[in-house]
Design goal:
- This protein is an alpha/beta fold.
- It has one domain: Spore Coat Polysaccharide Biosynthesis Protein SpsA, Chain A.
- Helices cover 28% and strands 19% of the residues.
- The chain has 7 helices and 9 strands.
- The strands form 2 sheets. Strands 1, 2, 3, 4, 5, 6 and 7 form a 7-stranded mixed β-sheet that branches.
- Helix 2 packs across helix 4.
- The longest helix has 19 residues.
- The radius of gyration is 19 Å and the shape is globular.
- It starts with 10 loop residues before the first strand and ends with a helix.
- The mean pLDDT is 92.
């Protein structure tokens, strides 16, 4: 995105809530839908997004207020999710940016928002350096190491729409089709040729955390992904649901005499 416009991208409303008028909160999944909706609700604590949408194959029975449902064919596996995220997610977004969250990655510190996050077409959590001898992971077509990716993050509408509009072929790496790797490494050169920008490590380390790399030490992130290291204390909406299901199964066995 162009950095010429330095007008504030956010503001506080009368209730002191952060308002992001250019950003849609979104999630796309066919599994853990209840937990994903909880993660979306949690992400809205202290933030008023322009829009919020759950993209899934069945309308959730109890759809939280403020979150709309959009239909997509069932995502039967992770490969289907990766493909649809790259080529179709933009069809559901009507704002300049979208923040993609999952049941295991969402906003945890709204107070850590920075307007500079919207200076870029893609920002996610930093990646670690490739392991010694690995000359393909986290690298673009020129062999340059890419330090920022991660599925949980902000993308511009322009970036989301680009792969489908440009007819970019779906090509994996070593048999794997990871949407964030495809965007931030595989086609990075194409995005940059169109003037799009992926955030540098120096900014992304304040945005989100997944891998416990030295560069994030002592930093409180806006979002997280996966309950590793310093992320371990963030909410896990599977827990209560898992316990309740276990109790129901136990009750059923006792009632049946097994």
């Amino acid at each position: 995105m162009s950095t010429e416009n330095k007008e504030p991208r956010s503001y506080r409303n009368a209730q002191g809530k952060l308002v992001l008028p250019q950003v849609t909160l979104c999630a796309m999944t066919s599994v853990n839908v209840r937990e994903t909706l909880k993660a979306m609700e949690y992400s809205c604590r202290g933030i008023e997004f322009a829009d919020a949408v759950i993209i899934t194959d069945k309308k959730p029975r109890f759809l939280p207020k403020g979150i709309r449902y959009s239909h997509i064919d069932r995502l039967g596996n992770i490969d289907a999710f990766n493909y649809k995220t790259v080529y179709d997610m933009g069809d559901y977004i009507h704002t300049d940016f979208a923040l993609l969250v999952h049941y295991d990655g969402f906003v945890v510190h709204p107070e850590m928002w920075r307007d500079e996050f919207l200076d870029y077409d893609y920002i996610g959590s930093p990646w670690p350096l490739p392991k010694p001898g690995d000359d393909t992971t986290y690298r673009d077509i020129y062999g340059n190491i890419c330090r920022v990716g991660n599925s949980v993050g902000i993308r511009s509408k322009r970036l989301m729409d680009y792969p489908k509009k440009a007819g970019i072929p779906w090509v994996g790496e070593k048999g794997y089709f990871n949407e964030d790797g495809f965007i931030c490494c595989k086609i990075r050169h194409l995005l940059e040729a169109e003037g799009m920008r992926i955030a540098p490590l120096e900014v992304a380390k304040y945005f989100g955390h997944e891998n416990m790399i030295p560069e994030i030490e002592g930093i409180t992130p806006f979002v997280f992904h996966k309950w590793y290291g310093t992320n371990a204390g963030y909410p896990d909406f599977r827990k209560k649901h898992t316990v309740l299901n276990s109790l129901r199964r136990l009750h059923g066995r006792l009632k049946g005499g097994n």
